[in-house]
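Quiz preparation item.
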């Protein structure tokens, strides 16, 4: 199989594309010839990324999107169809990891994680699914975490709850729409990104920073997994990819 041609020409929308896993995936997919729609909240980062991709000969557009607002996610999907005529892959990547013990009662942070990590994924599915159904083809790639396999402790109870939810939603979606529409869940361990900066609870933030310093691998590790899932033949559905640093025990 020609891996470059398997990705070339595919229209891919990535949420949370301004840094980390989303940015690395955008750069690698662009180098393989994908047409990209990149969305996030930080316009300056999106502008720079798109400019660099275009300067390197790639194709990309961006739109400022808050994934907690369904109408904004729908508008991004509409942009993909208007600009490129279709949408082949929806990567629901935007996420927040606010680690803190339950006793700290960071209820506002619980709400944020639910809104971004769960509802943001659902809004991405709701926006892209009608397009995929009309095309009779499409591919959802939802970014969960190894914290969606085993509860991250200490302090990761709610975060893990959101990532378990992403895994469950992805599997249920596969059962409902599988056939012409593929569904992949990617569950990374400690990967270099801004995710580790999401904790405002001081003791938890110190723990997370130390954990990542000891374990993290580059974000392009996940980007390669994304490409691997996309480049498979249409009759192959890579359902889950769990990847960890070799030194990470959790």
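Solution:
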């Amino acid at each position: 199989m020609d891996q470059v041609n398997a990705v070339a020409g595919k229209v891919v929308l990535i949420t949370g594309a301004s840094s980390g896993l989303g940015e690395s995936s955008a750069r690698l997919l662009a180098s393989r010839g994908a047409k990209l729609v990149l969305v996030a909240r930080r316009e300056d980062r999106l502008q720079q990324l798109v400019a660099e991709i275009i300067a390197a000969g790639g194709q990309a557009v961006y739109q400022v999107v808050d994934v907690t607002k369904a109408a904004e996610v729908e508008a991004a999907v509409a942009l993909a169809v208007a600009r490129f005529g279709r949408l082949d892959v929806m990567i629901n990547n935007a996420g927040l990891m606010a680690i803190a013990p339950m006793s700290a009662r960071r209820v506002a942070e619980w709400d944020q994680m639910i809104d971004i990590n769960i509802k943001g994924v659902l809004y991405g599915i709701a926006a892209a699914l009608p397009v995929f159904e009309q095309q009779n083809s499409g591919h959802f790639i939802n970014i969960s975490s190894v914290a969606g396999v085993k509860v991250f402790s200490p302090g990761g109870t709610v975060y893990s709850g959101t990532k378990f939810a992403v895994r469950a939603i992805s599997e249920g979606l596969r059962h409902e729409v599988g056939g012409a529409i593929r569904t992949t869940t990617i569950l990374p361990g400690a990967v270099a990104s801004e995710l580790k900066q999401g904790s405002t609870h001081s003791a938890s933030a110190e723990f997370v920073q130390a954990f990542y310093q000891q374990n993290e691998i580059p974000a392009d590790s996940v980007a390669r997994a994304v490409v691997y899932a996309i480049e498979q033949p249409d009759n192959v559905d890579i359902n889950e990819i769990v990847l960890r640093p070799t030194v990470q025990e959790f």
